[in-house]
Design goal:
The complex is a heterodimer. By secondary structure, chain A is α/β, with parallel strands linked by helices. Chain A is built from nine helices and seven strands. The two termini of chain A are 32 Å apart. The chains are: A alpha/beta, B mainly alpha. Chain A: Homodimer. UreD, UreF and UreG form a complex that acts as a GTP-hydrolysis-dependent molecular chaperone, activating the urease apoprotein by helping to assemble the nickel containing metallocenter of UreC. The UreE protein probably delivers the nickel.
Chain lengths: 224, 265
């Protein structure tokens, strides 16, 4: 794998390449379900690639391949040696390699989604790997999580609070979550979803396509 | 010692090394490595087989980088005015024409292939080599790294390490030392994560290996200089060692087949 037979080690300004979207968040919050939903909704109109960072095995990649939302070969799995946050933040080499391999094989792509392994609230993507990032929480983790903040909650370009259908069952107050998130995030957007109820994740998909559009306008391949 | 060696040998060098265990994960799964003494035996074995081999090949790569003139690139006619941000000329398809097959980097890469018996080890070595090459080209831009990337886009790790060390200003012997250290530091860290070993005890173990590191690097460098007797003479590949570690080969193959794994290798 990853036989990059032409020279594309240098990608100084992102021109001519796809938008790279990081999807991070704690274990079980619905990252993989969101990625599947985005593929389902955006797949027909955009050329996509997905890189998964499983904690072990290739569970997430296999889930996505089985879901049939994207050609299996457009999904690559990266192993992270017990340290999912290292692979998206401190040492992004393997993820960059996977992203570039997808672009090389199937390019030009519009969007490459990098899904992190489930991690803690401090995990964020390096700007060297992801141009935009979504942090996914779920209501069953407790409605105090947005208040606790952490770099994922406060700095992600989009915060998604998933599993809103469970809120009454776990006694989570969505109003409190929205208010606390707004307090720590300022103008950055927050979306509430239930991917179980809306498998297209329509609102998140809208946000992503807007970002892809903006990216392609500012990073088009220069006419030579 | 060139301070660049510290950067090259640092486990924080962002070249993907953190996700490789050098066989330790499978050795832990099998029970062979389960505490500090058993880790010590594993590391000793690894250093004097795979490590010594990697050190010799790394030193050879650094030596070759220092004594091989850069073959004329296709775009040297206006080298003085060429915009360095321009992409290099595209080479069509995988077949690169006859010249590159004669490239000293392709030849040396073949020698590493021949000395790496297990396919899983070759794959892990090329993956790490490719990632290191990517990082090195941005951190220590140099024509010899560009030449390597052009002729061998997926070089074996010792080749990428040797050339990166050269580009950073380190000597071939220092490059060998970095390779020897790399052979045990990554697996040691992996064992700390997998077994929850006392990290201070494991670092004491690494410190106890320092005389071995010096000896392995010196021997490796001696072999490499024997392989490159003089810049104008053809390399004597047979002077490079060909140590093997069948247990490591087996662990690597088992790891590649494993259902559950945390590390790439």
């Amino acid at each position: 794998m990853g036989a990059n037979h032409d020279d594309h080690h240098h990608a100084p300004d992102g021109r001519g390449r796809a938008l790279r979207l990081g999807v991070g968040g704690p274990v079980g919050s619905g990252k993989t379900a969101l990625v599947a939903a985005l593929c389902r909704t955006l797949g027909p109109s955009l050329s996509l690639g997905v890189v998964t960072n499983d904690i072990y095995t290739t569970e997430d990649a296999d889930f996505l391949r089985r879901a049939g939302v994207l050609d299996a070969e457009r999904i690559l799995a990266v192993e992270t040696g017990c340290c999912p946050h290292t692979a998206i933040r401190d040492d992004i080499a393997a993820n960059l390699d996977a992203v570039e391999t997808l672009e090389h094989r199937f390019g030009p792509l519009d969007l490459v989604i990098v899904e992190s392994g489930g991690d803690n609230l401090t995990a964020t993507f390096s700007r060297g790997l992801a141009d935009e990032q979504i942090f996914v929480l779920d209501v069953s983790g407790g409605d105090k999580v947005p208040r606790k903040g952490g770099p994922g909650v406060t700095t992600a370009d989009l915060l998604v609070v998933n599993k809103t259908d469970l809120a009454p069952m776990v006694g989570a107050d969505l109003g409190v979550m929205a208010r606390d998130a707004a307090k720590v995030r300022g103008q950055r957007p927050v979306l509430f979803t239930s991917i179980r109820q809306d498998p297209t994740a329509a609102t998140v998909a809208d946000w992503v396509s807007e970002r892809v559009m903006a990216w392609s306008h500012t990073h088009a391949t220069p006419v030579s | 010692m060139n301070p660049a060696l510290l950067l090259i040998a640092d486990s924080r060098l962002p070249a993907g090394g953190h996700a490789h265990s050098g066989g330790v994960e499978r050795a832990v799964a099998s029970g062979a490595v389960h505490d500090v003494p058993s880790l010590s035996r594993f590391l000793r074995g690894r250093l004097h087989t795979a490590g010594a081999l990697a050190a010799a090949l790394t030193s050879a790569a650094a030596l070759q980088a220092s004594c091989t003139p850069i073959s004329p690139a296709p775009d040297t006619t206006e080298a003085g005015t060429r915009d360095v941000t321009e992409a290099p000329p595209a080479t069509e398809g995988g077949a690169e024409g006859g010249d590159d097959r004669e490239s000293p980097w392709v030849r040396l890469d073949d020698e590493v292939d021949a000395r790496t018996a297990a396919p899983a080890q070759r794959e892990a070595s090329r993956t790490q080599g490719r990632l290191l090459l990517r990082v090195a080209r941005r951190v220590w831009p140099s024509s010899v790294l560009d030449e390597l990337a052009r002729t061998v886009p997926d070089p074996h790790h010792p080749i990428a390490l040797g050339v990166a060390a050269h580009a950073a200003g380190a000597t071939p012997e220092e490059a060998a030392l970095a390779a020897a250290y790399h052979a045990i530091s990554g697996p040691a860290t992996a064992a700390v994560r997998l077994l929850g070993l006392d990290p201070v005890a494991v670092h004491a173990l690494l410190a106890a290996f320092t005389p071995d590191l010096t000896a392995v690097a010196a021997q490796a460098h001696f072999a490499a200089t024997s392989a490159y007797p003089a810049p104008h003479l053809a390399p004597r590949w047979e002077a490079l060692p060909a140590y093997s570690a069948p247990a490591l080969d087996l662990l690597a193959e088992q790891h590649a087949q494993a259902e559950i794994r945390l590390f790439v290798s």
